[in-house]
Amino acid sequence: MDLETKVKKMGLGHEQGFGAPCLKCKDKCEGFELHFWRKICRNCKCGQEEHDILTSNEEDRKVGKLFEDTKYTTLIAKLKNDGIPMYKRNVMILTNPVPAKKNISINTVTYEWAPPVQNQTLARQYMQMLPKEKQPVAGSEGAQYRKKQLAKQLPAHDQDPSKCHELSPSEVKQMEQFVKKYKNEALGVGDVKLPGEVETSAAGKSKVKNGDRGTSAAVGAMEDKPPDQKSSQYSCYCCKQNMKEGDPAVYAERAGYDKLWHPACFVCCTCSELLVDMIYFWKNGNLYCGRHYCDSEKPRCAGCDELIFSNEYTQAEGQNWHLKHFCCFDCDCVLAGEIYVMVKDNPVCKPCYVKNHAATCQGCHNAIDPEVQRVAYNNFNWHATQECFLCSCCSKCLIGQKFMPVEGMVFCSVECKKKMMS
């Protein structure tokens, strides 16, 4: 690939959402500008998911690629012009007549995603059992929540090597093998049914497996309960509370038909967020979102947010880093062998810390070097020196002495305080 082609390819990715406002920083951000490799905005340092970027087409491509070469190909369609798999999201539109003074108007509610079930009443019940702020109604807080979780739970760079920063051929091969493995062993999509229907499905599966010898032990245990307990024979695998037979339940094929979840309980075991579009990863008896499943299998670079497939990487401050990505969060200089200070879980080089983050001394009004001792009280700071930490009235050194603070001033005695305040 020549330099011009490479620059163009990089540019396309970096033009995505350019200038979009930040929903978190509001006017403080000049608009979204993607960092060269960090997956964050260069202006405000927030993630792409925090910006108002209209990326439904990109999201559908990403999920379409995730389902490619899996048993979930019925959920995707390949475009004729480029053959790229696209996610066929199930959009649900509900129309409700609303009485008015003179005539009846129609109130339309569009869900940007809904369970792909034939029974719309069941899909509507499912939506009503989700928290209001998480229902993906177009233009609502819930739609924004879904969009954010799609970006967070299913990062494109966890499945597509072309979305990663400068992988070696060996790393590309390892990543492709890793993706193929989790598609075969862990990836699934939840299904919405009534508990009785799940029981029937389980019985059918068991008969196919065992001939006509009967159902599985778990399903058999359900059937053995007396009729008066029928309403409480099902319990949620997550919260352990009873499930009503007439309410929709979510089941995950990889978990087995004996496990059911309330719609609002179908969450990742690590982040406790609702599994977006019911896309789950099953491992050791637990549901994971895509991000946290991958985190349980591979180290993730705290700098670029990508999984690490190289044997050589560094660990610092309880996190993992590509060697080339252990850099200052402010200026991107490499920190190997350099003094750095952690600021909000991000490493910052000493010059950037002094310039952008260091506390200011109340005595000399200069920045306090991170390697020197200081005195801190509430939000005020002083160099711990005879020249700076002094009584604001008589200039007596207060190091090792009792003092009386008044806003940004300190006093050695009541007399000095009174004299100064008068």
Salient structural properties:
422 residues, alpha+beta, Cysteine Rich Protein, 3-stranded antiparallel β-sheet, two-stranded antiparallel ribbon, 10 helices, 19 strands, cell junction, LIM1_Testin, zinc, cytoplasm, Testin
What does this structure look like?
- This protein has 422 residues and is α+β, with helices and mostly antiparallel strands.
- Among the domains are: 26-86, no CATH class; 373-421, Ribbon (Cysteine Rich Protein), CATH 2.10.110.
- The protein contains ten helices and 19 strands.
- The strands form nine sheets. It has a three-stranded antiparallel beta sheet with strand order 5-10-11. A two-stranded antiparallel ribbon has the order 1-2.
- A hairpin with a 2-residue loop joins strand 12 and strand 13.
- The longest helix has 17 residues, at 169-185.
- The protein is elongated and about 85 Å long.
- It starts with a helix and ends with a helix.
- Residues 1-13 and 206-231 have low confidence and may be disordered.
